[in-house]
Specification:
By secondary structure, the protein is mainly α. It has helices at about 15-35, 40-70, 75-95, 100-135. It has one domain: Hemerythrin-like (Four Helix Bundle (Hemerythrin (Met), subunit A)). The structure holds fe (ii) ion (2 copies).
Length: about 140
């Protein structure tokens, strides 16, 4: 079964952001598949590292997009991104120290973060963009 599936509830009405989000879904599913197969810590860390660097790039692009549309809540959105980055970096550090028990927790964290952030936070800029386009 697919661990995380993209559906219309995640649509932020911006092609580039949508495709980056979809890519993150793919990566989280890749993490899940490797986890289910019992992949070793090195492999898991490799996938997690890929997710972290792609997320950093995505946040950068997304913040630039929000700047372009003059999104009034950019500051708080940027702050949320920063907090998420801090959390994944803490996980990265703990995994690097060999804490394999953490792999399961990271799996759940990735799912909750990805789905919760897009639905709860990212969709807000898309509502704003739709609103200003209509005005
Ligand atoms: Fe975001
Ligand atoms: Fe996003």
């Amino acid at each position: 079964m697919t661990y995380v599936s993209w559906d219309d509830a995640f649509d932020v009405k911006e092609n580039r952001m949508n495709s980056q989000h979809r890519m993150l879904f793919d990566y989280v599913n890749e993490y899940d598949a490797a986890f289910q197969e019992g992949a070793d810590l090195r492999k898991m860390i490799g996938i997690f590292d890929k997710i972290i660097s792609y997320t950093a790039k995505h946040f950068e692009d997304e913040e630039a997009y929000m700047e372009r549309i003059d999104y009034p809540a950019l500051r708080s959105h940027r702050h949320i991104h920063k907090q998420l980055v801090a959390r994944v970096l803490a996980y990265q550090e703990r995994l690097a120290s060999g804490d394999t028990m953490l792999l399961k927790e990271v799996r759940v964290f990735l799912k909750n973060w990805l789905t919760g952030h897009i639905k709860g936070v990212d969709t807000q800029y898309s509502e704003y963009a739709a609103h200003t386009r209509a005005a």
